[in-house]
Amino acid sequence: MPQSLSLEQLPFSQACDNNKQPILTLLAEWFANRVNILEIGSGTGQHSVYFAKHLPHARWQPSDQQHYLPTLQSRLNIQTSPNLQHAIPLDVIQPWPQFTSQIDAIFTANTLHIMSKTMVEAFFVGVGHVLADSGSLVIYGPFNYQGQFTSDSNQQFNLWLQHNNPDSGIRDIEWISQLAKLQGLTLQEDIAMPANNRLLHFIK
């Protein structure tokens, strides 16, 4: 991907632009004492550049699958911050990177409903391996409760997801909490967010 691409030529997510400030409000509290933050599934990089800019005390590490890295890194090159790191490849079902610094926080947005169940399980195993004791895991996205959708729009979104990929789908919070518990993670807060999403905060 040429380095001369402008912001207007890069992939853009309106949802990221809409939700970045509500998410940041909580991250500023939860990550106040976190130094090395790993973002999994950075996508367009919009969250990466915004959160790194507004959390200058922290080292923000974007990551994604290899084929997303060229456009992701192009945005990071344009909207750089001193604490924003170069994007690294991370595929949850492949061996995870070896980190030279202890990861004390992990953030991911709108990823678990895209992943297959096998990938979600691998995600939590990987988090369990790399996240420091007493570290934070924050997950943004839609979730079901007791097998029920929280809105008609989420139910329609789930149909769209499964039409495109039968292995994807909105996950049950009870299953997510169980997977987290197996890795020593306890759900501390479950906050309602715009557009029928949630922000989950786990502590290891």
UniProtKB/TrEMBL annotation:
Database matches in SUPFAM superfamilies: S-adenosyl-L-methionine-dependent methyltransferases
Pfam families: DUF938
Name of this chain's protein: DUF938 domain-containing protein
